[in-house]
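Archive entry: two folds, one per protein. Generate the first.
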Amino acid sequence: MKRKKLICFAYAGGSSVIYQSWVSDIDFEVVPFDIPGRGTRMNEPLYTDINDLIENLLTELVESVIHKNDELFLFGYSMGALIAFEVAKRLEQISPKQVKHVFVAAKGSPCTTDWMEKYSDLEEQELLNKLLKKGGITKEFIDSRELIDIFLPIIRADYQLIEGYCCDYKKISIPITVLFGSEDTFSKQEILGWKNHSISLVNFREFVGDHFFIRNNQQSILSFIKETSEMTLVV
């Protein structure tokens, strides 16, 4: 029997916790997936190279998460969008047609990472100020030495991973849907650039909000994923 499975990857500094509430809110199996160094994998070494990370994730996904009868949907938010895209690219080579759809949220196209401001080498206070302005952390976080010591190395490593990403311009044949916030700072060119990364359909859906529009649009996002996944399987 076919099983629909949604595998989710978090934004920089985030963990599977952001998707835990999705598990009971959608009618297929949701797999909130942690990458090493956070959440359920807090004691594992952090990765700063995306190719090494993807190889690690593929091994675990193929051995422990993905089964032959699964119909896979991937969702990635910000940094997680790059991870979802690269995982889809590798899985398509291993098991063609098993990945049915890739949802990428709050991220410009893969080949626009060169335009990013480099965060990973910033001094601590400057990095904290930029993260606060972006909405990724709170004032309470900045005021807590304990939280800074625990999570800032994770965030810094994640930015190294993003900043070192090299776009190879290889297209997938899997449909992509791009979710973006109306008040995010990505340009139209960066968002529409996702059209260059699949030979299948690439669609776009705007949500009200900034870079972290997921926080106030959870039900709308889940409904949209469900509706889109049903249309994908019909096609």
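Generate the second and append.
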Amino acid sequence: MTTPPSPVAIVAVNGSPRTTSRTGILLRQITEALADRIPATIRTIEAAREAPHLLTALSRDRVSDAGEALLRTIETADLLVVGTPVYRASYTGVLKHIFDLVDRDALAGRVALLAATGGTPLHGLVGDHQLRPLLGFFRAVTVPTVVYAIAPEVAETPSDALQARIDLAADEAAWLLSAPRPANRLVERRLATHA
């Protein structure tokens, strides 16, 4: 397997409204698996910690300088790992608000790995039916395998079944990152004007 040039900027976005969460543990395990496969820098943006910078603005032009820096970190990631606890059969409103502030063209062609945690296997399709369309709106290239985990699987050492899903998704993400992608000249021009 060919790896992309180093280092790859991986940004994990944790949509949990809690500072300590199963989603945070799962995202750490996913980013560690990715770092085992590709040279990377890893940054985690936790909605619960960054709320004052991102949730106090209803539009991008009202975001603080710190919030703008966080949004640009998301927009310029080589690989996004987007995770959320399942809340009322979907992703959290906090996560949705963050993505409402992201430039609609900035994620075009970028790779995104999707993850969710829930209390029951009945919400296992939230990644495919909720998160994938959200990232699809931004024209991100989503990893085929969504990592969904129920509460008993998420621990400092994941269950064997969960680790297998993490490994499969990480392998797919590494492969997608190694594939040539078209330049997104529109996005490059837009981001240059916001600098």
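Annotation attached to the second fold: The chain has one domain: 8-194. Residues 11 and 148 are 18 Å apart (CA to CA).
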